[in-house]
């Protein structure tokens, strides 16, 4: 029995989900719920940058208060400190441990609590499995762990970040390398069926 089409929206003519059309043209099977709108690369990138500013701002505030302004998290970008040896090198390593840990914990626990990060929530995005169901804790752990690569100086954005943006833009499912590993997609939360967005906060 042929599958009955149900486009995303109808306004002076039919508009068919381009991602779904691409999958069907390739002979694939579309398991994402009807009407779901996938998030674009630019919106996802902007959300990640806002999340990063938030995490780094929080770290800067905490480390500045604890050190009396002498050793804030910005010292992590001081190469001279890394090469100074002794306490300077130790401080440099501690700063980077804090950066990676904070990024991991932020993306893991906002995902578990809200089904997305704070910035994704602000943009109305949601992270779900390919069939629209919520991610479980192990999925959020895997996503957060893999997102740590974006925090690596220079390589994080210039290599991993740009590569994933190109992949999101190129793929009909708008999935990054992390999405493909976990089996997740990033969508407009309001486009999900009511039953599949109840977990969103």
Structural summary, described in words:
With 201 residues, the chain is mainly alpha-helical. It has one domain (35-191). Helix content is 53%, strand content 7%. It contains 8 helices and 4 strands, in the order E-E-H-H-H-H-H-E-H-H-H-E. The protein has helices spanning 18-25, 41-67, 79-83, 86-114, 118-122, 137-147, 155-170, 177-182; strands spanning 9-10, 14-15, 125-129, 184-188. The chain has a two-stranded antiparallel ribbon with strand order 1-2. The chain has a two-stranded antiparallel sheet with strand order 3-4.
What low-confidence regions span 5 or more consecutive residues with pLDDT below 50? 1-19, 22-29
How can the largest sheet be summarized?
Answer: 2 strands, antiparallel
Estimate what percentage of residues fall within beta strands: 5-15%
Shape: elongated
| Number of DSSP E strands | 4
Using the CA coordinates, give the radius of gyration: 20 Å
The pLDDT mean sits at 85
* Helix residue percentage: 40-55%
Return the domain count: 1
Distance between the termini: 38 Å
Number of helices: 8
Q: Order of strands side by side in the largest beta sheet?
A: 1-2
């Amino acid at each position: 029995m042929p599958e009955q089409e149900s486009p995303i929206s109808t306004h002076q003519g039919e508009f068919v989900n381009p991602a779904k059309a691409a999958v069907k043209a390739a002979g694939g099977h579309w398991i994402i719920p009807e009407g779901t709108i996938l998030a674009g690369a630019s919106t996802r990138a902007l959300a990640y940058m806002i999340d990063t500013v938030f995490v780094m701002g929080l770290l800067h505030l905490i480390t500045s208060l604890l050190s009396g302004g002498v050793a804030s998290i910005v010292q992590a970008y001081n190469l001279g400190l890394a090469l100074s040896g002794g306490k300077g090198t130790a401080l440099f390593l501690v700063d980077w441990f804090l950066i990676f840990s904070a990024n991991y914990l932020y993306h893991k626990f906002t995902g578990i609590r809200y089904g997305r990060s704070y910035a994704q929530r602000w943009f109305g995005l949601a992270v779900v499995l390919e069939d629209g169901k919520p991610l479980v804790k192990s999925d959020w752990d895997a996503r957060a762990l893999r997102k740590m690569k974006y925090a690596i100086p220079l390589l994080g954005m210039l290599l991993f970040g740009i590569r994933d943006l190109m992949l999101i833009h190129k793929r009909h499912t708008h999935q990054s390398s992390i999405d493909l590993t976990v089996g997740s997609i990033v969508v407009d939360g309001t486009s999900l069926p009511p039953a599949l967005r109840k977990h969103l906060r």
